[in-house]
Amino acid sequence: MWLDPNTPMTPRISTKILQKKLLNWYGDEKREMPWRNNRDPYRILVSEFMLQQTQVKTVIPYFKRWIKSFPTLQKLAQARESTVLKHWEGLGYYSRAQNLRKAAQKIQQDYSGKVPESMNEIMKLPGVGRYTAGAVLSIAFGQKVPVLDGNVKRVLSRLFLLKENGGTRKSENILWETMQHLLPETGAGNFNQAFMELGATVCLPKNPLCLLCPLKRNCQAQKSGKQNLYPPPKQAAPSTKISVSAGVLFRRNKIYIQKRKTGGLMGGLWEFPGGKFKPGESPEQCLHREIKEELGVTIQIDEKLMTVKHSYTRFRVTLHVFLCRVRSGRVSPTQCEEWSWVKTEELDRYPFPAANVKIIKSLTTRRGACVQ
After folding, report:
1. Which of 203, 229, 255 lies at the terminal end of a domain, its last residue?
2. What gap in Å lies between CA 173 and CA 211, rounded to an integer?
């Protein structure tokens, strides 16, 4: 079989030669990763959920802690959501953790505790899309199913001079079809991983290491010197700036925290009360209003603790954090799922969004200094 940049079948690159070159390279150069030690479908499912929009070096320590706490699918299915979210704290996109737990529960209930082996069934699991399904089916079960992540898209685009970046459904389908034609009859799991590995370590977004590439003699972009033009860039989504005030509300050496409602943004995570600025408000005015609306009390602001800047996918948050206490009224939360007064040293038992974790670290350091 032969492949061409514009159609799946032309006399440009022999797929058997390409497969052999790439698999030989992967056998020699692949990185050691804890989920590559065996083909346990559960471990591969966990790793693929974690690797969605997250770099390998970030995932590895999280994966190790996760497997230590939830060594089996059954353990995960039985775990409390708060425990699962705490293990995920700092990875972001917390719906992945919630969906992974729900997937484990569904597998226990509907598939006798075994990860389903068909595309139709595995796609029924919460949080499992075509990419995750392909990774699990090919790596764990050896099925001839492609994967398509950002690394694979980049390699395909350069290899065949494909003007595709996956930005539209048509573009995405062309890339899926191209990858499908490249797959060997056996060993699709290693081939998929080799493609992803090549994109992650050699065929980099900027300044690719072409001299180290096992496919350099076959790559159309390298031959024409157009590596940095492929794939064509996607239109960047605009990033919204948001200013927020949050209050660390003290009462008799305890701090008020509340749990965000399930189903919303970062649902199930705990936070300090507060909210977004309204036009013309100062950080202090915002906090007074938000606490009154959320908790039904008026507060006294003692001092500003810190300013935290944190970037999410589509917005950038500047968080103004104040130490405060109740001046009048009784705390009556109306916009959260749960709430509690906890000691500073107990805060690390609860899962918080990444920006709030920075606040907790500051509070813990501050308390340690006061104790000394």
Report:
1. 229
2. 30
Q: How far is CA 200 from the centre of its chain?
A: 16
CATH number, domain containing residue 221: 1.10.340.30
In a domain, 235, yes or no: no
**Active-site residue numbers?**
48
Reported in sequence order, the residue ranges of 144-273 that DSSP labels E, i.e. its strands, are 240-251, 254-259, 270-271
- 328-345: average pLDDT: 93
Residue 256 belongs to what domain range? Answer: 240-371
Q: How many domains does the chain have?
A: 2
Domain match, 256 and 355 both: yes
Q: How far apart are CA 164 and CA 152, in angstroms?
A: 12
pLDDT in tens, 244-268: 999 999 998 999 999 998 877 788 8
Per-residue pLDDT of 105-142, as tens digits, reads 999 999 999 999 999 999 999 999 999 999 999 999 99
Q: Residue 178: which of 318, 2, 40 has the closest Cα? A: 2
Give domain status of residue 314, yes or no: yes
Question: For residue 162, how many other CB atoms are within 10 A of its CB?
Answer: 22
Please list the alpha-helical segments (H only) found in 229-341.
Answer: 283-295
Band of residue 201 on the pLDDT scale cut at 50, 70, 90? very high
CB under 8 Å to 361, separation ≥6 — which residues?
A: none
Give the single-character DSSP code of 334. -
Q: 355 or 76: whose pLDDT is higher?
A: 76
Rounded CA separation 211/202 (Å)? 9
Instruction: Identify the CA nearest to 302 among candidates 323, 285, 326.
Output: 323
Largest CA distance in the chain: 80
Cβ atoms of 4 and 160 within 8 Å: the answer is: yes
